[in-house]
Amino acid sequence: MKIVMLPASEVQLSAVKYDLGELQAPRLTGLSLKLFVTLIQAPLIGSLITAYLRKQNKMDEVLRQTVIPEPPMFKPEFPPQEQEAGVVSLEEDGKPEDRVESASRCLPHHDPASSWNSETTSFRYWKIRDYAYAYRSGLITPSMVAEHVISAVEECKNITPLLISFDPEEVRKQAAASSQRFAEGNPLSILDGIFMAVKDDIDCYPHPTKGGTNWLHDVRPVNKDGVCVSRLRKCGVIFVGKANMHELGMGVTGLNPHHGTPRNPHDLQRYPGGSSSGPAAIVASGICPAALGSDAGGSIRIPASLCGVVGLKTTYGRTDTRGTLWAPGTVEVIGPIASSVDDVMLIYAAMLGSSPADKISLRPPTLCLPNLSSNGSSIASFPMRLGKYTEWFDDVNSPDISGVCGQVLASLSEMQGCEIVEITIPELQQMRIAHVVSYACESLCSLLPDFQNGKFQKLALDSRINLAIAQSFTASDYVAAQRLRQRLMYYHMEIFKKVDIIVTPSTGMTAPIIHPTALDGGESDIEVTGSLMKFALTANVLGFPAISVPVGYDKQGLPIGLQLIGRPWCEATILRLAAAIEQQWNEPKRRPVIYFDVTKGNCVKMGKKNVMFPPNQVDLTKVKYDPGEIQAPNLSGTWLRMFVMLIEMPLIGSVIVAYLKKRNKIQQMLRETVIPEPPMFRPEFPLQEQELGVVCLKEDGKSQDRVESCIRCLPQYDPASATASRSSGLSPSFCYWKIRDYAYSYRSRITTPSVVAEYVISALEEFNNDKKPPTPLLVSFNAEDVRKQATASTKRFEEGKPVSALDGIFMAIKDDIDCYPHPTKGGTTWFDEVRTVDKDAVCVSKLRSCGVILVGKVNMHEFGQGTTGNNPSNGTTRNPHDAERYTGGSSSGPAAIVASGICSAALGTDGGGSVRIPSSLCGVVGLKTTYGRSDIKGALHDGGTLEIIGPIASSVEDVMLMYAAILGASPTDKLSLSPSLPCLPDLSSHETSSILGSMRLGKYTEWFNDVYSPDISTKCEDILALLSQTHGCKVVEVVIPELHQARTSHLVSIGSEALASIIPNCQSGNDKKFTLDTRTNLALFRSFTASDYVAAQRLRRRVMYYHMEIFKTVDVIVTPTTGMTAPLIRTSALQTGETNLKVTGNLMRFILAGNLIGLPAISVPVGYDKQGLPIGLQIIGRPWGEATILRLAAACEALRSETKKPASYFDVLKGQ
């Protein structure tokens, strides 16, 4: 049964009920755990078990049976935040030592001398400033402390194994160097000589990184520090080694059967928490003042809370995670664990600084720290509103937790003037599901290439259970989880309009007991996991900063932590409040049972795994063009029916799909290859230079005004003489009527929109009913509605008040874009039954406001699942140049209705060439805009990351007019993409020729010439030669690596996102109503796992890098639009459809970059092959560079030598 969620903005919070239920799964250890793992890894039984677990925990209901209206948010997208008060700004690109110096000046007063000389009997941890004072004063040296640290680590080894990799001589060497610097009076920073441990999933050379396993270092060598480690090392930090952890971060207790389980320093019979178990325990035991951990699901905050220390999870993207096992993830951060807020601030200052990619995509604001040293630094000087969701806050295993945390809030209110604000947070259950899917799948994607040669079986049993569940998530599950993520971000941003911080306990229970049987065989206890993670997930799913600060103990003497969750980038705010809480803590700190006072006493083969070089290390001179023909059978008729029946069978279908994926190297690329780049889930564009000779448009202005500005950009043209020439038959060759011709005829009263409407209606009825063979253009058409719109337009012209140059222009809308009152079926016969239309899509609404007459919904390849236009359900649209050939797709109807002269323009969608391919095959112009340039809300796939809505018209100038009307980014894209000002080329200016003369056209010759017929490359070469001769354009040879990988990345991305949109509507057997070729595609898409999807996004970032490097040397990239001209229609395909991936490969060969990395591209007709079929040239531009490609397309159009009248053509302006 399908569930339809209200948009987040319409959810009534007063009706929200607290819904975070307990996780449902058995607690297993010992023999029962081993048996369960055996079963869950068995092919058939395992699928049943994972399906049952997903159902019990409502995962399938949320991910597969629910329509989630929000677009996916693949990584946190933060709205701009106000500057925090009372802060000191830091230089992100400066030296870590300088930031640490600035941080030390922000700290509250502390007298290390009195600390050293104090005779107090109460327990306290030594602070970093105490160590620095002792070193500078000569009381101790780093080398002296090193011996105590080494002794403590050795002593703990058999009781609580804290370190996985430890080399005493390496520690002594670092300590000796630090001691020498102090002896010379030249310490590097206040962190010089400070001992730190590094979690075993962060690179710290020369130690191996095992991720808590006993084998990962064999397949993943370490040759340098992680970025954060490198920054700390520059400050003089001494690294003692790699700290223990829950294997692969796959748990939150710290259990590790391989290396031994670290114990909680407060109670050796209890867990320290995880997955950063070693870092928290080594700090709590006093051996190190601080440690580095990673946090993807509370893995810093949970162990910090359970061990009674401080743990900071930074804003996503605030620190650079390169050099960790999970560097490309979207929920993971690296953060500090220390015994005090002061020390956390110092470590944070040293390690912070976004990665280059995050600087572009997240645009982090200036780094800040709270100035705790000033007189007005108290919380009372900065009144804070603390949000508390009471039902959630109190949902803990012991009232001690909520009681202690509640007392802290009461104290903050009474003593510091904080206001406690009651809030409601909807959909916490969905939050948990979104996190499980996101984190599990991204982890699996990172690990899969390393699971060769039986490595998977070497993992601990609980890790294997988690990964088995992760493998059951499909790519569409992953996309659905990201849609939930968008909703959750909305709710929290609304909450942060009323509060400054959200407060919760850090965990739902204190340190759990270690069951003896778990130490050797492992344990799976989902109930404990749920309690420990109950409050942690918000910060990871949405990327917020959060800190756990100790606030007391339960009745058993176990530490309790309070969590503070801040606005994006607002670390300073939560650090200020954490420091205030720490300062007002009245209860004496309890000395842990285990405590040491250390102040005193390019692709290289590795087995079956491939390791890709980072793209900046790829030698382009050695890149070989790989045409990579698609390997799959060509089927139609009975053979296609039989194939679909087999591929949809549970076992046989899996075998067939696996075979096809292997033949096409999909498995090798996605699961057997280490891809070093982080994923790019949607296009992330670097800043671009302003284009030359352009007119900028107001994106937020009226569509009519933009159209008027566009008219002034067009070249000189006299509609009167053009009309007279064609009417007299003196025109030398065929040409289409332009929009300006219609506008002139209406204004001059040569004809009216109502007269033209009758010709249009007549032509459409002939096409749909009388054509032999039938050529169904429209799937929804109401003649009376067309007449009604035309009458209104005619009246406006009679009154001398046309709305714009587009008033009275007839246009058609593809059947996957909403155009009220027509239904949207996506080329099916039934989809309107499960998805109603009550208003226009945004782009359609903009056209309507310009006076456009919308004739109806045009045919398409069903659900955009093909590139030919074949549609057995509604009939297949024929090519106006040859009725025995396909139009191309999926925007088959839009291209054909324009090419046949019935409409001046049409709207299509393009997720994989679906505007450009049919435009090329039908001899018209099709524009694919930059991703995010136009708002696709109201399209069937409006949550995708590749799809755009774009215009198809008979001339470049008509495309420009359409583009001017529909452009305008959605509110979400304005925030996340920061689009540059939309511009049009000023083709009326005399500068156009000189601008063209400076253009560099990139051409990858081997790729350019890889076409089905030499006619295509020859015609495209001819136009390039003319551009060079006429305008002085320079053709530059380029090389584009990894085209095969780009195709795989595109296939997985668009397939998974389409499936995510479709799945909630496929209940009650609706999926069987699809045509056979669509069902074949969906069977393939269902086989893509969520980790496949993440791997595809890693490839996507590589493709973006290569293209951005190419655009440093060229202005545009030129290719043929398609690798073949219009293919023949097989008779058997008309009734049953067909699947012909060889044809698909030829048609899509050149178009994928525009979709995969969001670049603008246009197809412009440049000639015909020997059979008289149109050939198109594709021009691909830089991000937001529509003006450049439109200018070059107009020049190509002007140089074109001939145009042929299509076999099926209607002159609706003249009624012929």
How would you describe what is shown here?
The chain has 1216 residues and is α/β, with parallel strands linked by helices. It is 40% helix and 13% strand. The strands form 9 sheets. Strands 5-7-6-8-10-9-16-17-14-12-13 form an 11-stranded mixed β-sheet, sandwiched between helices. It has an 11-stranded mixed β-sheet with strand order 23-25-24-28-30-29-36-37-34-32-33, sandwiched between helices. A 3-stranded mixed β-sheet has the order 18-19-21. Helix 32 (842-849) links the parallel strand 24 (810-814) and strand 25 (853-858). The chain is elongated, with a radius of gyration of 32 Å. The relative contact order is 0.09.
Q: What gross morphology would you assign?
A: elongated
Helix content: 40-55%
- What Rg, in angstroms, do the CA atoms define? 32 Å
Total count of strands: 37
Main β-sheet, spatial strand arrangement: 5-7-6-8-10-9-16-17-14-12-13
Which sheet architecture does the biggest sheet show?
11 strands, mixed
Tell me the distance between the termini. Answer: 52 Å
Count helical runs.
Answer: 46
Our estimate of the beta-strand percent is 5-15%
Mean pLDDT: 93
Poorly predicted ranges (pLDDT <50, ≥5 residues)? 602-607
Structural class, please? alpha/beta
Protein traits:
single chain; alpha/beta; 11-stranded mixed β-sheet
Secondary-structure map:
Elements: E1 3-4, E2 28-29, H1 30-40, H2 43-56, H3 59-64, E3 66-67, E4 87-90, H4 96-106, H5 112-117, H6 128-137, H7 142-156, E5 163-165, H8 168-183, E6 195-199, H9 216-219, H10 227-234, E7 238-243, H11 277-284, E8 290-295, H12 301-307, E9 310-313, E10 333-338, H13 341-351, H14 356-362, E11 367-370, E12 385-388, H15 390-393, H16 399-416, E13 419-422, H17 428-447, H18 461-472, H19 475-495, E14 501-505, H20 516-521, E15 523-524, H21 526-533, H22 537-542, E16 546-553, E17 559-566, H23 571-584, E18 604-606, E19 609-611, E20 635-636, H24 637-647, H25 650-663, H26 666-671, E21 673-674, E22 694-696, H27 703-713, H28 719-727, H29 739-747, H30 753-770, E23 778-781, H31 783-798, E24 810-814, H32 842-849, E25 853-858, E26 878-879, E27 882-886, H33 892-899, E28 905-910, H34 916-922, E29 925-928, E30 948-953, H35 956-966, H36 971-977, E31 983-985, H37 992-997, E32 1000-1003, H38 1005-1008, H39 1014-1031, E33 1034-1037, H40 1043-1062, H41 1076-1086, H42 1090-1110, E34 1116-1120, H43 1131-1136, E35 1138-1139, H44 1141-1148, H45 1152-1156, ...
Parallel strand pairs: 1-3, 6-7, 6-8, 12-13, 12-14, 19-21, 24-25, 24-28, 32-33, 32-34
Antiparallel strand pairs: 2-15, 4-11, 5-7, 8-10, 9-10, 9-16, 14-17, 16-17, 18-19, 20-35, 22-31, 23-25, 26-27, 28-30, 29-30, 29-36, 34-37, 36-37
Helix pairs in contact: 1-18, 4-13, 7-8, 17-18, 17-19, 17-42, 19-40, 19-42, 24-41, 27-35, 28-29, 30-31, 40-41, 40-42
